[in-house]
Amino acid sequence: MSVPARVSLATLGVADVVRATEFYESLGWRLSPASVPGVVSFFHTAGGLLSLVSTDDLATDAGLPSRIAPPNPATDFRGTMLAINVESPAAVDEALRTVVRAGATLVKAGGATDWGGYLGYFTDPDGHLWEITHNPAWPLDEAGVPRLP
Description:
By secondary structure, the protein is of the alpha/beta class.
């Protein structure tokens, strides 16, 4: 048997599920009624689902030890990044302004790339790194998902 090539759910471990849920809702993201307030929040996206769960609960579920100290969102890079592709450089800048007003930390302002795109980075209130990008070589489908060659 092969493993299907799809990402159906990305889960972010957060310090406070309620606070994190409020952040993503303030961006206009649609919360699923399958969510359990304060325990797990599921958001519909143009791709797979995004879920928010307590970092400690996530570690317990995976059989891993919990962190002793929470990560510092300003300095601790976790080696992962999530991306939101948008239709233009102006949309990158507008999205970055929106997330900062909602409580995100701007990591890198929008700017041109050496590969012909335009991108910027932010961290959510729990320090998860997000990229907002426009890649002219990757047109977006009706749902906003990049179409790769």
